[in-house]
Structure formats: C-alpha cells, structure tokens
Design a protein that fits this description.
mainly alpha; 81% helix; globular; cell shape; transport; Lipid_II_flippase_MurJ/MviN; membrane; cell wall biogenesis/degradation
Length: 513
C-alpha cells in the first residue's frame, strides 16, 4: 500500500497544483471577460484543443500504452515507442492541417448556435486557427507523458499541464494591451503547447536516448505497434468518454440562453478539479499493479477491491464537502470583475447538476483500467459508444424541448450525470462477468462504506458550524474568501481523516503493497 499511496500522492500533488493554477486562470478569465461574447467565442474555439488536453492529462493514454511497455527500457520497447510516436504525430499533423483548411466548416457546425452573431463567429474562427496547432503539440506531449508514466517517471509528466495554466495566466494579465484582448489568451495557448512538447521531448530523450526515425518506420515491423495502432481508436473512445461528452455538451449549449456555455464551463472546472486530482491520479498509478497480477485472478480481484475501497475513501467525502461548500466555492473562485451574482447562481446550479456524475466518472476510470489490464478494450469501446449515443439523444431532446427555458443548461448537466450512472452500471456488470452478486461479494466493502458515511457526516457537522451564507461571502475580499475557504476545507479534511482513522477505515487497503 505504501508505494501505491506515495505514487498516488506524488501525482495528486502536482495535479492539485495544476488545478489550483487552473482556478487562478479561470478566476482571471471571469474577472476580465465575465460571461460575455468574447469569452464564449474563446470557449467554443478552445473546446477541441481543450478536449485533447483533458484526454492527454487524464491518464487515458497511460492506460492504453502501459500494458505494452511493462516498465522495462530496451531496444524493442524503444522501437515501439518511436513507431507509435511517429504515427500519432503524423496523424495529428494531418488533422491540424485539415482543421485549418476547413475551419469555416468546423465553425459553421460547432458554433451553429451563434449563426446569427457574425462578430462572435468571426472571433471563433480566428481563435480556432490560432489555437488548433495546440492539438498537435499537446497530443505528442500526451504520448510522451504516457510513456514516462509507464516507466514510473510521474514528476515530469505531472508538471507539464502546469505550463499551460501559467502561460495562459500571463496571457490574460497582458490581454488589455491587445486591440482584441481575448486574442492574447489564444496566442498563450499556442505558446504553451510549444513549451510543453519541448520539455516532454527533452525528458523522453534523457530516458531512452536519441530518437531517430528511419525509413522502415512506415513498415510497422513491430507486431505490438500494429496491435496498438489498430486498437487505439476504440481504446481512445473507451477511456475518453467524459471528455467527449464535454465536447458534445459545448455544441448543444451554444443553442441555449446566452451565458450557458460560460456557466457550464466554470461548473465543470470545479468538478474536474476533484476528478483530475483523485480519479486521474489513482487510475494512472494503479495500472502497473493490476498488470503485475492479471494472471492471478484471485490476487487481481483483491488488488482491485482494495483500489476501489481507496477510491471510495477519498472520493465520497470530497463530493459531500463540495456539495456543502458549493456556493462559497463559486463565490470565492469566480465572483470578481464582470462575473455577476446571476452568474454565481447559475454556475452553482450547473455545478450541482454535474456533482451527481463526479463519483461515477472517478469509479469508472478505475474500472476501465481494470478492464484494460484484462485486455477487454473492445467491450469498453462498445459501452462508451452506448453512453455517447445516449448523451447525444438526451442533449438533442433538451435543446428541442427546453431551449427557451433559462434552466436548460442545468438539464444538460443532469443529462451528463444520468449517462455517467448508466456507464458505471454497465461497466460494473461487465467487470463482474455480468453478475452483480459477484460484484457485491467482491468489490462492495459495506463496512468501509459505513465508516466513510460516519466520517463524512462528522465532517459535514463541523462544516455547518461556519457561516456559509451568500450575504457573508460576497462581502469578503478576494484574500478573505480564499483564506476562509482554504481554512474550512483544511479543517473538514482533518476531521474526516481523524474520524476515519479512529474507525479503522484504511484496513481494507492492506492488499496494496
């Protein structure tokens, strides 16, 4: 358990730092641009590059690549790395060129909700062309990070996402100097991609030596590379379902009340904080443990059960705490400058809509890693396809019947949560060989769950002692808000940890070594 916990902690710390800087970035975006047309145009243009960023930083590629490398550095593995790196880079380069060449079509489809707003469409197109090369840079960086993670080099790969937030923060701060301020942020995204891939490439060369592409790379002589490239599209869809849902959601949100895109974006950022820190860290670190014991079915199930217990121990109290502190968190992070009280209320509602899905997506990340360790990539693909089709059908229904309802954006968030539950239900069913009786007997630690509920209740009772009213929080300064929310969260975490330790909640993790 100690090594698993320490590796998870390393990844979590850097992810926490990245998410923290991400909140600073969003705080500045909210302050400088509010929920106005410029920001909405940026969010639409940035959605596809942001989609690639989320996939590459979520541990998705690590889940796919890790089983092929098994943590050993040798000539055979190096050849595999060079082959997949070349083909993925080539594919992304072609995608980037096509996206630039046909940017009018992309904007016409994806920003269709703004079809009557010519100035917004022009902004979307110009920023899309500026930022689309980030797809190439970040995609290559994501593959490099996955390779580094496969060799337990977690620090560099966890540091790389921080670069984007730092450069974007600088871009927002200097934006008033631009004739069109939002362009500063768009150029910052492009610059961040160049810096990220440069740092990642240097780290990879230090790990495996000089990278050289020979002519026979086109022949793909490595059978593992052939299998990997053949399975990659399905595996990618299977593990990136959360990010794909977000991409679809942005499209449909553009048809709703002005501001819906921004409210959903800010709410999603808060939820992604917990998902990123816990779900990504656990899923990234757990893969080698499951691969090591996948031939011993009994040990595999024991290890997976312990990992699920650990996931419940950290995720449930985090979600409960977020529910209790939702409004103070939104006010503390976003209520500045052009971000109004109306924006606060609507972002809060969207956050509650997403909150239901958070637990599901974190647990699904763990289950998908287990299914991948068992080479059940095809099943994951079909489950994700069902979820994707369901998402599209629900979103179309919402836009069709509720487009003039001011709360329609909340319905989109709730639809995302509903699909998350469906996805979790099917994944569990498949994992347990289509027997929930086996799941309950193997993976559902009732005693641990009771202890978590007791400890979470104790945490909530303590949190309720603080003044959490809107009228109090909006009167505080930025420093006062951030200091207060940090103190409350710290006290809540301490109360939970002390209670769960006294109850012996960590005893279920003894399987992890």
């Amino acid at each position: 358990m100690r090594k698993f916990f320490s590796n998870s902690l390393i990844v979590s710390i850097f992810l926490f730092l990245s998410k923290l800087l991400g909140f600073v970035r969003d705080l500045l975006l909210a302050s400088f641009f509010g929920s106005g047309a410029a920001l909405q145009a940026f969010l639409v243009a940035f959605r596809f590059p942001e989609f690639i960023r989320k996939v590459t930083s979520s541990g998705t590629l690590t889940q796919i690549i890790n089983p092929y490398l098994n943590g050993s550095i040798n000539q055979r593995n190096n050849k595999f790395i060079i082959t997949i790196l070349y083909f993925i880079a080539l594919f992304l380069f072609i995608v980037t060129l096509l996206a630039i060449a046909f940017s009018n079509i992309w904007v016409g489809i994806y920003a269709y909700g703004f079809i009557d707003e010519i100035s917004v469409l022009a902004l979307v197109k110009s920023m899309f062309v500026i930022m689309i090369p980030y797809v190439l840079f970040n995609g290559v960086m994501g593959v490099i990070s996955a390779i580094l993670n496969s060799y337990s080099k977690y620090v560099v790969s966890s540091l790389l996402p921080i670069v984007l937030n730092v450069v974007m923060i600088i871009g927002v701060v200097i934006s008033p100097r631009f004739n069109v301020p939002i362009y500063s942020v768009a150029h910052a995204v492009l610059l961040a991609g160049i810096i990220q891939v440069s740092i990642g490439g240097y780290s990879l060369i230090k790990l495996i030596g000089k990278i050289s592409f020979s002519g026979d790379v086109f022949l793909v002589k490595d059978n593992r590379a052939k299998i990997f490239l053949r399975k990659l599209p399905g595996a990618f869809l299977g593990t990136a379902i959360l990010q794909i849902n977000g991409l679809i959601e942005t499209f449909f949100a553009s048809f709703l009340l002005s501001g819906s895109l921004a409210w959903l974006y800010y709410a999603d950022r808060v939820n992604q904080f917990l998902y990123g820190v816990f779900g990504t860290a656990i899923a990234t670190v757990m893969i080698p443990y499951l691969i090591d014991c996948r031939r011993d079915k009994q040990q595999f199930f024991k290890t997976l059960a312990a990992i699920i217990s650990f996931t419940l121990l950290v995720t449930i109290p985090a979600i409960v705490g977020l529910f209790v502190l939702a409004k103070p968190i939104v006010i503390s992070l976003f209520y500045y400058g052009k971000f109004s009280l109306n924006d606060v209320d609507f972002t809060y509602l969207a956050m509650l809509g997403y909150l239901m899905s958070l637990f599901c997506f974190v647990v699904v990340r763990v289950i998908v890693s287990a299914l991948y360790a068992q080479n059940k990539t095809t099943i994951v693909f079909y489950i994700s396809l069902v979820s994707l089709i369901t998402t599209i059908c629900l979103d179309i229904s919402i836009v069709n019947f509720f487009s003039y309802d001011k709360y329609a954006f909340v319905y989109l968030a709730l639809a995302s949560s509903s699909v998350a539950f469906l996805n979790l239900f099917i994944q569990l069913w498949v994992l347990c060989d289509f027997s929930f009786k086996l799941f309950i007997a193997t993976y559902l630690p009732f005693i641990t769950i009771i202890k978590i509920i007791v400890a979470s209740t104790a945490m909530v009772l303590v949190l309720k002692l603080f003044n959490l009213s809107d009228s109090y929080w909006i009167t505080l300064s930025m420093f006062g808000r951030l200091k207060s929310i940090a103190l409350i969260v710290f006290i809540g975490v301490c109360v939970y940890l002390v209670t769960i330790l006294l109850l012996g909640g960590f005893k279920s993790l003894k399987t992890l070594k």
